[in-house]
Structures are given as structure tokens and as C-alpha cells.
Amino acid sequence: MADRGRGNRGGFRGGDRGGGGRGRGGGDRGDYGGGRGRGGGDRGDYGGGRGRGGGDRGRGDYGGRGRGGDRGDYGGGRGLSGGDRGGDRGGYRGSFSGFRGDGRGRGRGGGGFARRDESPGKTMAFDYNGKVHEPDAEITKLENQIVAAQSSSLTALTSQMGKLNVKGKGGKGGKGGNAAPPSDMLTQFPPRPAYGSNGRPVTLWANYFKVNLKLDTFYKYTMNTKKVASASKPESKKGAKAGTGEKEVKGRELLFVVKAVLAKLLEEDKKFVGATEFKDALITLKPITLSANPMTVQVPRSEGSDEMVSYTVEFHGPNEIRVDDMKKYLTSMADGPAGADAISFPRFPEVVDAINIILGHKPRSDHIKTAAVGSSRFFPFGDDKIIKELNQNWRALAAARGYFQSSRLATGRVLLNANVTHGVFRLSGPMTQIFDGLEIRAASKGDNMAMRKLRAFAKFLPKTRVWYNFKTAEGKTVRRGKAIRGLANWSEVAKKGKTMAHPPKFDANWEYGGPKNVQFWIDGDKGGRYVTVYDYYKQKYNLNLKDYPLLDLGTEQKPFTYVPAEMIEIQPGQVIKASLTMDETTAMLDFACRSPYSNALSISTASRQVLELDDPSLENFGVSVDKHLLTVQGRVLNAPTVVYLNNQRKTTDVRPLGGAWNMRSVRVYKPGTKIERWTWVNLSLRPNAPTIGRDVVLAYGKFLVGMGIAINETPLAPPQEVIAYNADLDKIFAWLQNNGIQLFVIILSEKDTSGVYAKIKQLGDCTYGVHTSCVVGRSFGKGSPGYFANVGLKVNLKAGGVNHRLKDEFSILKDGKAMIVGYDVTHPTNLPLKKGASEPPSLVGFVSSIDGDLGQWPALSWEQTSRQEMLSSKLTEAFMLRLDTWSKHNGGRYPDNIIIYRDGVSEGQFSLVLNQELPSIREACRKKYSPQFQPKITLVVSVKRHQTRFYPSSTDEMSKSGNIVNGTIVDRGVTQTRYWDFFLTAHDALQGTARPAHYTVLLDEIFRPKFGTKASDELERLTHELCYLYGRATKAVSICPPAYYADIVCERARAHRPEWFEQKDVDSQTETTGGAPSTVGRQVHVNLRDSMYYI
Question: Most buried of the four, 214, 600, 696, 802, by CB within 10 Å?
Fold first, then answer.
């Protein structure tokens, strides 16, 4: 991964967090400044990969980072973009050469180039037979009534808070702060001040259907399932619940048990109506009468087996689900007495959960036809399946298209959010066809290519569910469900077969044997004998087996039950969590990237079939789903003007067009600390790799000076111009430190796929404290001004410079009285955890502004408990450090106002942010300010991993990629008036479907007191215009820089810990034992701690 323009493909990250995947791909490419923007189109939702914990925040939306490339004179214009959150990578591809950079995007949710969108409809606007429905006038009227009532009731509060003016000096360091902030009960989850009014009105389609609910009450039971122990076959303690010794019943096993329960309930009461998620919840229309509780049911031990296993299911409940209370609330949005409900969020979760269970029951019922993944994603595997095989690396994987659904509350109505989603599954079908498609055969040790294929294929076989088709002695064809243990493998037999009386035998040098190469023992009248698998099946079944590898259907206790491929069929719909290789990522992105029109069309038609939204069974619950997508009212905000220096070093204005601009004839706004001593080296990743000469490096230094960057034009000569990765990297860094080098340019001989980037950043950022800049030789060597400028913008940021700023200041930022903060947490997923090792840590990224230019955002990062989203008390320490940093750059005073963008928590965690993180922030302020004067705080959560999408209703309001235009904001129609939130699409999504960022205000002590009913417009404007201040791009990014930078800091923290995060795929056959690597003390070097080292 190099510090460069165009994003190469990274891996996938994301796991479902409430249905949403977490893929942040995309590729906004700014001209003259490539960077990793979070822009671009949504490249399909890919569940799996790197998750961030529960709720909406799954990083599973398969968003890759993509390739951009703005076209125009010396930059400017449009380019290609990848998934939603990926590289705003500088374009500069016009007449002045073509600045495209060659970087690897390490995004959340994966990386990857965007590919050309081949799906139809890029120039079409969605409609229903030429008609566009206007937004519901009654809902608009209700929204206006409720927000007016809220505004009236809060007038007194606004007046009171507005009086909290600065009166004197604050804490240590000088003037600052305000009187003690108002009660949190009055400011947490603040009501919407008003709907925004700025911008050009526009009507949009939203990926929501209205849900109609006739009934007022449901009943919910919880079910506790246990397996009845068999005297003849005692159950394994593996997977037992902690402290019970009982093995947990889950997954496919639990699904069949719940199906048996439903059948028995219907047998006992022919009028029984129930819905379940086939785990532990049961929704009914009325309380049920149980003949026995616990209930006992029997289920086949395995699919197709005649042997039955007994289970007990104990019912608890029922709990009454008051749908009528929710209906009343949606038409009034009134909190309970004394504001008791003010900080209860989300509202009516038990009702929403019941609706989701009812809507999901039917598609979950047929697990062969539809694969249900997580709580909200459904993939068809019947005749309507849409899949793409990922055969690039001989792994039995396939990409599949499916649909997400989740009900949500909105003003005056319940809505169903539906979206296209993509996932990675095991290939399904006859094993012989799969082997033929991958060109796999049994292999001896001398066949290196065949062995390579087999090792890759074998990695994903364990636990794969298959059908085993065979004939009984009576000639009856039987189909049994089994789980594959792996391929027949000589090395494993050599290890584990030593204690067996008659272990399988392999022909000499046959590692993965076929039917003719493997013998097994059969008992006979004369004491038994060895026979080849081929001969056995020829004699018993008259089968002529081909030389496919054999499959092991044994268990860990009884391994080596070898079966030929001709008798095996992989069952459909088996989702798999795995990091994809670069080639697989490319194929997945090609498959997932679709135009907005195509996605809207699929949601309005195919999704209804897959999700069975028109199934008559919904009527039993009084539930129906409207046939048409909703329309909502949006607004398009004006783009701000950005400021640079011209060649005379005077400020000059640049006006963005289509969310992008160029740097023709301008320089960076403010150079950083002069880089007096810098050097370079060619890093060879393989023998005889091409190298870049000194003349190119000299041209690069001259170009940086021309950009206005403060740097010595001529670099110091390195001790050697070419070094080898393994042998010389540590030595060169020691030389850098000893010679006071401030910037080290590493020219990689090829794109990094082996963790070299992580090693370089670990050494530079943590061990030696030297800024590093990685470039790819074949791109750097061309001497392109565009490529040089892409990297140069990052160099200026590392040195403390400001590349550009906004022309119009915000009133709350004037006079240097406000600090803006962003922080984020990233979690480990899909990592090959060693047996006995602890979980990898979660990582926190924290950034904050230091002045009114908002061009410098120094960072902090640290580890915390694995998969813990809420920050610990260490947040207090970090906040205090950054208050001091701000004070150092602002005359020794502390900020009066602190605006925080907290990235990526789910809606279910909003209250936790207020209850657990806000106190830590308050504590930091108490320690830095005087007791009488505390800063005002506004805390906004920014979420990108959600499933809301908007589509243009007219070609007149459509971008060239078929998306809504940049600057589009939506704050009504799909929101709740009671809460203050909005969806913002700041960027121009150049490919795929644009994913807006969703912002929710959890705490406000700044905007309403100062701006009253215009507070919404002011916060929307600030957030939108911040998106134009991403320092590495000349393009608006899709989520505001404080949140975006915090995410990049998390990514860099991962690079600092290659022991954990640079590992690849899980191979269950080769897991080893060992302790966890110790990385707790690994911190950014003191030399770089107050810089943008991470950029």
C-alpha cells in the first residue's frame, strides 16, 4: 500500500451490524490531490469482513475503495469512483498529464478499484410507468405541525441557553469556556429545531415501502432449547454454554427444532398463527395454550437421517407488544411525562423487533430456497438466484446478490427499508462440476501447480455442508446431510493415523490422493484387507470413478471416512466470512457495482419476491406492505468556495463544480514546517526488480517546491539507492534517525501485497519517528505532475501545512473559539486467531482541529478491549492532551465550543455514547477549565454503514452516473421529527449507487442556543462544507473529515500491528497454538505524535 493516488484493492472488512454491512469503498478522486476519500458510489453491500459491533454499523456493505480519476485541464472534472467510502484520490488527468496515483486503499470494508458500471440505467431515472408520486402531503403536514409544537415549547430553553455567554477566563491557559452547561436532560437527544430550508428543493425516491399495521397487539414468547442427552451417544462438551456443561443448540440444528415446534403447535391448535426468526423468539396473535411446557420435539440427527434426537423447548412469556402505543407516538412524537422518554432511543424496539420477525418469517422458512444471513439479509438460491463464481484463486467461493430488509419508525408511519446486498458464499452443486470448473484433480507432491490449487481449495472445505448420495443394501437411493472435514490428505494421516490399527494408505508421493491412489481397510471373512477406493466403488456400485480428490466426511473423533466426489453435492446458501484476495475483490466489485436505476428497479420488483412481501400469510398478522417505493423531499445545498495561493502567493478563490475542482495555477494555502533533510531509496521486493533513478527524485523535489511546499529541493543521497526488503529495511531506518532525516520516500518495486507497507509504517511511525511516503516505482518513475502532486499534498499535511481552506468562515469558528473532534473505533474480524490466543484488540482513532483553517488534524490512537465499541476512561486523557494541543496553537486559551463527530456507532448504542463516553469528555473539561466556565459541546454521530439510499426522480436532477447530485440533503419523510438527524450526500458518486452519510445529534449546547430555529440549517451547512476540507483531495468527500480522518487513524493503527492484522485467511487445518502478540505499548513516536503522520 503506497501513499499515492489511485487505490489498489485492499481486503474486505465488515460483518453485519444490524444488517448493514460495513464496506466503505469508493473512490472520489480529487484533482491535484489524491487521497483516500470516502466518496464514490455504493459498490453493493457486502456483508462479511470487518465488523464494528452490533446494530446498524456492520461494515458489511461490500463497498470497495475504488479508482477515481478526475478529468479536466490539470485536474478537474469527473472520474471513475468505486464504492462508497474509498479513495478521494486526486485526478489531474487532463491536458497536463494524468495524475492517477497508484495507491492501495485500505478502507473499511475493503479496497478495490472501481470498475466500469455495466449495469443498465446510468442515464435513466426510476419511475412507475412514467409516474413519479409526490411525497405524502399528510405526512408533510404532520411533520410541520409536530416540529412547530416542539419549537414553541423550547423557546424558553433556547432563550436560557443563549444567555450562557463567555464572561471571563477559563481554565489553565487563559480565556475560554462558558458558564456551566445546561442540564443534560434538556440537551441530550435534542428535538429537531426545525426542518432545514436552505438549498434547492428536489423530489427523490427512497428505498422504503410503507408498512400497514391493522392490529394493536401482538404477543411475544422466548424459547429456551436444550438437547436431551442420549445414553448411547453422550454429547460432546465442545461448544457448551459457559458454566452449564450443556452444548448450545444453534444454527441449522436450532432451525429444524423450531420448525418442529411450529408444527406441533399447529397440530395442537389448527388456528395457531405464529412467526419466528427460528432462534428463540415467537410472535403470536394471542396467548397460546401449551399442553406441556417444556415441550419435547424430535428432529433427525442429520438431514435425511432416520435416527431421531429429542429436544426440550421451554416457553417464557408472553410479553404483550403494544402496537397501538407506537401508533399513537408516531402521530404525536410526544415524550412521556417529565421527559422520561427523552433519552430513550431507539423508541419501541420491542414493536419494531416483532414487525421484523413477522416480515422475515416467510423467507426464512425455506432454507434451501433462501439463505438468511444475520438478522436482515436474504439471498435467493432457487431458480431466481444471481451469483458469480469467484474462481480466481481456486477457492470454492461465489458472490451472490440478495436483499436487505428492516422496519423503521418515521413520523406518522412505519417503513420497511429494503436494499440490494451482496455476500460471499461457498460454491454449491455437484462436487464433480466444481472440481471441473476449477480444473482440480488429485495430485502428487511433484506437481507444484496442482498442489497449489488443492491447498487453496482445501482451505475453505472444513465444515462445508454437503449432500451425500448413496444406495443402501436394498438398492434404495438415500440422501444424507453431512459436513466435510477436508480433503483426503496423506500428511494428516501420517500424523493422526499412528494410533489406528489400519490407517488409510496412500501411494508414494501422493499428497492429495484420488480413488486409485488411496486404500482403506475393510473387514472380511478372512480377517480383512486393504482395497482402493476405486475398486470398492466399482465392485459395490459399478461406478467408474475419475481422478478427483477424495473428500473426508469423518469427524475429529473418527476421521478418514473417504468418499468420492461423484457422490457429493455441496448444499446451497452457505455464507462464509473470509478476507478476499485482490483478484477476488476485483470480481466481487464488478458484480456488486450497479447503477442507481438498476438497484431501484430490483428493489421495487425482485426484492418483493425474494422477501415475499406479498405473501398472504402476512395478512394473518394484519400486516401489508405498500407496492411502491416512497418519494421524499430533499434539498441541494450550494458548494462552498475554497481558497489557495496563486503563483504570486496571494489568496485566490476556486469554485467547485460537481463537487470537484482543480489546482491549475495555484499553490497550497499554507506550507508546513520546512523539510530540510529528506532522502529516498528503491525497495526491491523481488530479485532484479526495476529501479528508479536519481533524476526522477530530483524532478519530484523541484515539483514539490513549485507546489508551494516548504522543502529542500535536493534530497540527501542515501547510503545505497537500492535495498532489499528483508535484509536492509531496519538498517536504513537507523541511518535515517542518526542523520536527522525528516521525510523518507520509499519507491516500491511493485504494488505491495505482502505486508511491506505495514512494516514501513510501523518502523517510521512508531520505532524511529520519521515521516514516510511510499510510492510505486512504475508510476512514480513516469514523472507525472499529477502523481507528484497527489503525493505532495500528503507531504505538506505531514509537515503541518494546510492545502486549502474555505473562503467563508462559520460564525462559531470565527475568532478561534471552536475545536472540532472526530473519533472512531475499529474491531477485528475474520482473522486467523490461534488456539489459546486472546482476541486481537479493538483500536481507537482520535483527531482534532487546531485552528480556524481546519487543515491540520493531529491524531492519537490506542488499543482497548476487543470488540468494545464504547471508549474507556482513556478518552479523558486523550481529550485533555488535545485540549492542550489546541491551546498551544491558540494563544494559551481553550476553546469555547467543542463540536464532536463520533463515527460509526449503531442506533442501539447512542444512549451508551451519552452515558459512558460523554462523562469522560466532561471530566477532561473539568480538569482543564475553571469550575465556573465550561465549554459548550455538540455531539453528532456520523454513520455510513446503513441501508438508506436515494434515487433521482428526474434526469434534470441527476448526475452523470445516474445518482442524486452532490450536496443533496434529506431530513424528512424517512426520519422522526422528534429527533434531530439528516442524510447528506456531499460527494459526487461517480459509479455505483451513492450512499449518503447519516448524522444524528445526540447532544447540542451550541447550535440551538445561538441560531434558534435556523440551527438545523447551520449544522447542515457546517457538516456539508467540512466535506470540502479533506486535505488529500480536490473533491468533496462523502463523510466529514473529522470522522473520516479518525477512520484512517484506525487503519494506520492496524498497520502498526501486523502481528494481528496483516494475517490472511483462516485455515482451520493448520491452526497452531500460541499466545497473543503483545502490541499494547506500541505508540506513535513522540516526534510524530502531534502531526498528520497517518495521511
Answer: 600
